[in-house]
Amino acid sequence: MIASGAPPRPQGELERKIQIAGVIDAQEAAMLVDEGADFLGFPLRLNDGREDLDEKSARAIIGELPAHVSGVVITYLEEADEILDLMESTGADWIQLHGPCTTRALARIRRNRPALKIIKSLIIRQQNQPKLEQEIEKFTPWVNAFLTDTHDPGTRRTGATGITHDWLISGKVAERSPRPVILAGGLDHSNVAEAIRTVKPTAVDAHSRLEGEDGRKDRQRVSRFIAQARKAWRMV
Q: Is pLDDT of 7 > 60?
């Protein structure tokens, strides 16, 4: 059961939307907007220091986005005060939490920023569906959406791995979650249509497989990814 006072389900805001994460600079952000991205993701304050840009630059880009595009801060921070400080620093209205946040921390964030829209990652590992179901029940009262992503056992990274996971598990998550589910993990133009047909997510997210050898988003890859996702949604 969803707790009283829980955040509204932003189904319309996320329905059939596309997020491109790992924005490097204003030029890349403008290209992604031109190609039709709905959400731009900004990984910040990461444990491994793989930030693509600094917080000041992220704030400037987010502040200039058109009204129909939202900036999403992506972080592994766990403590409520650190997360609130990051959101104040960037001015974003959306945050994607990849760290093992507690419900106590999420409750504090909600009290201080009730309008903040929170996406909580659910990391797909081998045979961990029971744990995912427990996390859905635990976090649903405090978040606006979930994002399923891949665990890379080689690097131990969760996110920006370029690796797909078992979409049947993500499909079960999408079926059972009271919140919208965003599908991430190794998506590009070659597989996003099949992923959408299999999982039926509310939205999709892509990052590393849309980049060229220079680390920047490749316009052709972005365009093909978005076109394939839109086409798949028209057919489901």
A: no
